[in-house]
Amino acid sequence: MTDVKMADYYERRAPHYDAVYARPERQADIRTLQRLIPAALTGRDVLEVAAGTGYWTQFVSATANTVVATDYNPAPLAIAAAREYPRANVRFGRADAFALDQVAGDFTAAFAGFWWSHLRRSDTDRFLRGVCARMRPGSAVVIVDNRYVDGSSQPVTRTDQAGNTFQRRELPDGTTTEILKNFPTATELRTAVDGHGSAPDIVELEYYWLLTFTV
Length: 215
Hints:
Elements: H1 4-13, H2 27-40, E1 45-49, H3 57-63, E2 66-71, H4 74-82, E3 90-94, E4 107-113, H5 124-133, E5 135-146, E6 156-159, E7 165-170, E8 176-180, H6 186-193, E9 198-204, E10 208-214
Parallel strand pairs: 1-2, 1-4, 2-3, 4-5
Antiparallel strand pairs: 5-10, 6-7, 7-8, 9-10
C-alpha cells in the first residue's frame, strides 16, 4: 500500500505542486520530456499511475488513444480532472499504485511520472509486477523521474540500512515532512526491468531520466 505519510504530504502540497515545472534551469529538459513521452505513447490505451495534478496527462492525452489517469490522493486528482485536455480521451479514478488490478480497463501502455523515486528499493519489483500484469503483450511502459543534481535537488538528509534515501520537505504552511526520495542509476533501472520486460531504453537528461521498455 502507498505510504500514508507521503500521501498526506502530497495531498497538502497539491495546490502548489506544478510550480516545480516552472524552474528556469529545468526548462530544456522539460521540453524534451514533453516531446519524448507523448511520442512513446502514441496510439496506446494508457494506464497512468500516480498522475498527480495531471500535468503530464495533458501531454500524454495529445497522442494516446485513451488515458485512465489514477492517483491515490483526492486533492491532486481533483486538480487533474479540472484541467482542459487536448482531446476528450481521459478519465480519472482513485487507485493505489500497488493495487492496479482494481482499475477497470484494457491497456497497451503504462505511464508513471515521478513515482519510482518514492518506491522503497524493496518495492520496485512488486510495483513493476503489478503494472505489467495489467498490460497486453507488446505494451509499452514509460517511466520518468528525477536525477539528483547538487544545488538543484533537495539535499538527501538520511540513508537507511537498505540504501533508501530521504529528504526533508517544507510545505507552504511551514510544516516539514521526511519524504522517501530514491535516485536510481541507469544500471539499477535496467536490472529492475529484468524479468518484467525487454528492450529497456534509458534517456538521461541533466535533471531527469526516462525509462521505456516493452512488456
